[in-house]
Amino acid sequence: MADIARLVRDIADEIAAIPERGDVATYIPPLATIDPGHFGLCIVTVDGAVHAAGDTDEPFSIQSVSKVFALTQALGKIGDTLWRRVGREPSGTPFNSIVQLEREQGIPRNPFINAGALVVADVNLSGHEPRVAIGELLRFVRYLADDDTIAIDEKVARAEQATGFRNVALANYMKAFGNLTHPPELTLGVYFHQCAIAMSCRQLAMAGRYLMHGGLYEPGGARVVSPQRARRINALMLTCGHYDASGDFAFRVGLPGKSGVGGGILAIAPGQASIAVWSPGLNENGNSKLGTLALEKIAEVTGWSVFDR
Ligand SMILES: NC(=O)CC[C@H](N)C(=O)O
């Protein structure tokens, strides 16, 4: 087994020295003003050991990484009937694309593109006020991470709301096909707030543990989801977690991963580790440029892969 403590330190040092860091998201001021020099890394291994380096305790906007936790929550509510309203195929299109929705009758390709995440948010809203639905998701994430300090960044939520015209279009379009059950503005409110959850790498890696432990909170702990559901969420992360760069991520890293436009990535080595990286500069697909590179190096050194013997 590689020396993980040393590995995280080496990678943090190596990444810190790279000048070409990608471009931070500019669509809202709270993201546009982030220093691209940040880098955080945290690896929680299967034995519970936590290895962290760099800005591992600095909260950042998890954005689309929240789609993993929201999906887990929605599956807990309605199980496999979710798949009548959202597909399970890679889209091959950017995260906020609308093109497939017309041809495919308002059924989004998968739960990790924005359209699919809006359907998931609509499910999580059922039977609740938006405030209660988002509170439920926040409590779930706090439980998974074992950390009650995790919070929503209201500034980010407000900025999402003020600028999210494409998401408004996606929600209205799906509403026209009958694939949203609530008024679009309520579903959008839940979605914008889930994107605005702020977490550190340490909190994110802790929250991802159930996906390395086959659905258990920790080995021997409470069950969050069944082993089959954990496997399936991992499968969706691998095939759809990086939008139209999901194939490239699988090729380079070989692990299920979910990115966010805040520069965070949660990656899972099933049975081995839950890994969170944060580097705010993005590549042309809206995924963390150096975060992906860091994960590629981690996979190379440790041999963690879902494609190995
Ligand atoms: N890829 C992302 O992280 C996208 C999230 C962003 N808030 C959006 O909805 O456009």
UniProtKB/TrEMBL annotation:
Source species: Bosea lathyri
Gene: glsA
The keyword Acetylation is annotated on this UniProt entry: yes
One GO molecular-function entry: glutaminase activity
Positions bound to substrate: S64, N114, E160, N167, Y191, Y243, V261
GO biological process: glutamate biosynthetic process; L-glutamine catabolic process
Stretches of the chain forming a coiled coil according to its record: none
Protein name (Swiss-Prot/TrEMBL): Glutaminase
Catalytic activity: L-glutamine + H2O = L-glutamate + NH4(+)
Keywords: Acetylation, Hydrolase
Enzyme Commission code(s) on record: 3.5.1.2
